[in-house]
């Protein structure tokens, strides 16, 4: 039996989501833009999904634009914000531990003349709000900080940062892909202007996500080609997936507190168990400011990629570093940014729990780990 | 059920090796070693994809393991340094030894596997007299790869498997077709993997920027200057083309003299040498002979072999005295010793004996 502890990579569909998506694919083939009855019922489904997403965020429906995922939403937020100010005149502040879907667009904008400041994180993986404040310049038009890190689960002080960024009249964007559904993400409490998220990280299908834009902000569309999404994103909507995302967001809104508790209990059981059964381990990143489902552990002197394979051969799915194009594993840039050596980064594995994980599975992993860590350690970090 | 790791390069040979073991009921784990690293735009990406497709067809677990940094320091830099020292290196030997039967064997042990299998054409058996492992030439003589495997120790041979040793290349392709493997018709790679276009000198300059000594003299056997060369790393012993020197009879490189930054040329007879000094020898049995022995010695991959007397000087060094002179004894290449179809051992040619 497979034990899936990689919910920060992607998640299984919730049965409620699968049901809604299947029903939509089967019964609702209409184009939401069509004026006839077929179109109208499709449009109604789309708008209900939009409301569900908005309610989950404490936002209004017209602030939500469906995209093909968080990568598209991040690209749209960055390119449109910078273009609005003028490429050569814009300055953007971000962190040193962003996802590639932030880092790569920014590098591209930089090559076009935009200036970017990457504020380093401390050894716990956290940003100092004062350091972000100090990085602001008269030309700063955007601050983009991920809410919670995908690799370490470390939660950034987005509320503090968003508040003073907003006071300076600068746009604040956050990639909340990992946070949404695991902790409370509320537009009424945190004054973010732009927020990206993805369906498949919260038990909805792959290929759908959204960008939140605080009203009355209306960025230029990233994809042009039609009046869909109030001219914010051209192209016929991915209706069934949006419906799935809507249901997933509704579940997340109702369950977030309970989930946080369940996940944290499982995660803590895993960490306490690892500390007991495996020598020379260390938890990476702040334990205090961490997503309830995420555990990043350094197994000292252990090739994490080999340990991942050894666990996989027993049906246990975890994550190590970042996969390159060929599928081999590169040491994590996030852990490097936290001051970890390449050896420490290579020895680190991420365990992320979620829907369907139970205590029995955690105990099974704890039973498998010691021998596999020991064998991987003998292989060494060559 | 015993678990076996198969080094899958993305070629037809290792694909069939994996298939044969899986069919024999072994639990097979396919691993592609990414040696080029993520920085390279080398062939590795497509090859890993090919290997992955084969693993999917066979229904076996498959991983890509990153050894880019180690490959650069242990193989590529040694390759460049060898060229800059006037040698003609053969990096595939140390790659096999260090990566497939050292790094990958360690990885296999960590995965609770008891063996590493590859798609090499070679055979392993036991010496009926001593019980020791023997490395033997493949049934398909044209494809035999024992020349690259002389460095294997008893411990490595005990954990190595060559499932193709009894098969011909044609039979291997036929099996691949029968199994519908994606690599069945894939052409063979003949080049050194990190020198895909055959331009060795450019690769040397890229690995060790600024280290090439630059131009120097081309001289004949008497030291007369015949021309200039653009760097000794452009030349190898036995080379005829690209000298830029005209003469009545064809001229060959007879020596690459790194100390004086000179290329020595001569006619075909001047290429002949009576022997070779061989160092860093691995005797596969684990014991160096106490007395001189007679064996067939291959001094390059495609060399048919020459009869010779091997005079051990230490456990890891020997003089090889050919029964009759041999052309183009090239420092940096391997000298591999055979008794019939059994590989006795081999080492690295440090110099020719005139």
Low-confidence stretches of chain A: none
If classified by CATH, what would the architecture of the largest domain in chain B be? 3-Layer(aba) Sandwich
Q: Into which percent range does the helicity of residues of chain A fall? A: 40-55%
Extended strand count of chain B: 17
Run of helices and strands of chain B: EHEHEHHEEEHEHHEEEEEEEEEE
- At the first level of CATH, what is the class of the largest domain in chain B? Alpha Beta
Spans of chain B with pLDDT under 50 lasting ≥5 residues?
Answer: 39-43
CATH superfamily grouping of the largest domain in chain B: HUPs
Q: Roughly how many Å is the radius of gyration of chain B?
A: 21 Å
Overall morphology of chain B: globular
How would you describe this structure in keywords?
heterodimer, A: 382 residues, alpha/beta, 7-stranded mixed β-sheet, 3-stranded antiparallel β-sheet, 12 helices, 14 strands, 42% helix, globular, B: 354 residues, Rossmann fold, SH3 type barrels, Elongation Factor Tu (Ef-tu), domain 3, 3 domains, 6-stranded antiparallel beta barrel, 5-stranded parallel β-sheet, 17 strands
Element layout with pairings:
The complex is a heterodimer of chains A (382) and B (354).
Chain A: E1 3-4, H1 15-27, H2 37-57, E2 64-67, H3 70-85, E3 91-95, H4 100-111, E4 115-119, H5 129-135, E5 140-144, H6 158-167, E6 171-175, E7 194-198, E8 209-213, H7 228-231, H8 239-277, E9 281-283, E10 294-299, H9 304-312, E11 316-317, E12 322-323, E13 329-330, H10 333-337, H11 342-346, E14 348-352, H12 359-379
Parallel strand pairs in A: 1-11, 3-4, 3-5, 5-6, 6-7
Antiparallel strand pairs in A: 2-8, 7-8, 9-10, 10-14, 12-13
Chain B: E1 3-7, H1 12-23, E2 27-34, H2 44-58, E3 62-66, H3 68-84, H4 91-110, E4 115-117, E5 122-126, E6 133-137, H5 154-158, E7 160-161, H6 169-178, H7 200-207, E8 216-220, E9 225-229, E10 252-257, E11 262-266, E12 272-283, E13 293-298, E14 306-312, E15 318-327, E16 334-339, E17 342-353
Helix pairs in contact in B: 1-2, 1-6, 3-4, 3-7
């Amino acid at each position: 039996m497979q034990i899936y502890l990689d919910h920060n990579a992607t998640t299984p569909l919730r049965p409620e989501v699968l049901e809604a998506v299947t029903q939509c694919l089967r019964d609702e083939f209409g184009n939401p833009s069509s004026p006839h009855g077929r179109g109208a019922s499709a449009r109604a489904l789309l708008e209900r999904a939009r409301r569900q997403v908005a309610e989950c965020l404490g936002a209004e429906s017209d602030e939500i634009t469906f995209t093909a995922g968080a990568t598209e939403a991040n690209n749209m937020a960055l390119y449109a914000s910078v273009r609005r100010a003028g490429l050569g005149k814009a300055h953007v502040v971000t962190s040193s531990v962003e996802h590639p879907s932030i880092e790569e667009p920014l590098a591209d904008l930089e090559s076009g003349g935009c200036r970017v400041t990457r504020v380093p994180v401390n050894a716990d993986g956290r940003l100092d709000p004062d350091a972000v404040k100090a990085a602001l310049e008269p030309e700063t038009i955007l601050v983009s900080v991920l809410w919670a890190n995908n690799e370490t689960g470390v939660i950034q002080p987005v509320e503090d940062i968003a508040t003073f960024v907003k006071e300076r009249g600068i746009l604040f964007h956050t990639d909340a892909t990992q946070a949404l559904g695991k902790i409370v993400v509320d537009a009424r409490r945190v004054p973010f202007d732009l927020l990206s998220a993805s369906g498949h990280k919260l038990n909805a299908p792959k290929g759908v996500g959204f960008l939140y834009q605080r009203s009355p902000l209306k960025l230029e569309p990233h994809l042009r080609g039609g009046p869909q999404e109030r001219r914010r994103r051209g192209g016929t909507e991915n209706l069934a997936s949006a419906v799935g995302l809507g249901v997933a967001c509704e579940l997340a809104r109702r369950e977030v507190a309970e989930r946080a508790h369940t996940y944290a209990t499982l995660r803590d059981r895993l960490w306490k168990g690892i500390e007991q059964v495996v020598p020379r381990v260390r938890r990476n990143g702040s334990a205090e400011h961490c997503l309830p489902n995420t555990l990043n552990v350094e197994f000292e002197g252990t090739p994490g990629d080999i340990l991942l394979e050894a666990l996989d051969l027993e049906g246990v799915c975890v994550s190590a570093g970042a996969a390159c194009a060929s599928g081999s594993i590169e040491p994590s840039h996030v852990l490097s940014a936290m001051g970890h050596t390449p050896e420490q980064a290579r020895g680190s594995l991420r365990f992320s729990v979620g829907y369907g994980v139970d205590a029995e599975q955690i105990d099974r992993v704890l039973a498998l780990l010691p021998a596999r860590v020991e064998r991987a350690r003998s292989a060494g970090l060559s | 059920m015993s678990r076996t790791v198969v080094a899958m390069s993305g070629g037809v040979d290792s694909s069939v090796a994996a298939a044969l073991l899986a069919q024999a009921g072994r639990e097979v784990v396919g691993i592609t070693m990414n040696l080029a690293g993520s920085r390279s735009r080398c062939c590795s990406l497509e090859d890993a994809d090919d290997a992955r497709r084969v693993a999917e067809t066979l229904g076996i677990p498959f991983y890509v393991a990153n050894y880019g940094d180690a490959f650069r320091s242990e193989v590529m830099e040694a390759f460049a340094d060898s060229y800059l020292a006037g040698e003609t290196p053969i990096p595939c030997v140390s790659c096999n030894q260090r990566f497939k039967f050292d790094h990958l064997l360690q990885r296999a042990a960590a995965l609770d596997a008891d063996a590493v299998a590859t798609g090499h054409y070679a055979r392993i058996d036991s010496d009926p007299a001593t019980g020791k492992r023997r490395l033997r030439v493949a049934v398909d003589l044209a494809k035999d790869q024992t020349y690259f495997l002389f460095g294997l120790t008893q411990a490595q041979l005990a954990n190595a498997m060559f499932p193709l040793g009894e098969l011909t290349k044609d039979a291997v392709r036929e099996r691949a077709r029968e199994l519908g493997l994606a690599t069945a018709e894939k052409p063979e790679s003949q080049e050194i993997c990190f020198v895909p276009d055959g331009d060795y000198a450019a690769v040397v300059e890229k690995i060790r920027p600024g280290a090439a000594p630059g131009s120097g003299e081309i001289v004949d056997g008497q030291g007369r200057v015949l021309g200039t060369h653009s760097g000794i790393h452009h030349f190898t012993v036995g080379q005829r083309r690209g000298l830029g020197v005209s003469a009545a009879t064809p001229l060959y490189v007879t020596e690459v003299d790194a100390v004086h930054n000179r290329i020595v040329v001569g006619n075909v007879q001047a290429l002949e040498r009576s022997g070779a000094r061989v160092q860093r020898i691995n005797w596969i049995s684990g014991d160096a002979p106490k007395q001189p022995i007679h064996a067939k010695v291959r001094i390059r991959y495609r060399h048919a072999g020459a009869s010779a007397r091997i005079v051990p000087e230490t456990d890891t060094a020997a003089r090889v005295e050919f029964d009759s002179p041999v052309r183009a004894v090239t420092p940096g290449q391997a000298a591999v010793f055979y008794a019939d179809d059994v590989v006795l051992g081999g080492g690295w040619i440090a110099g020719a004996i005139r």
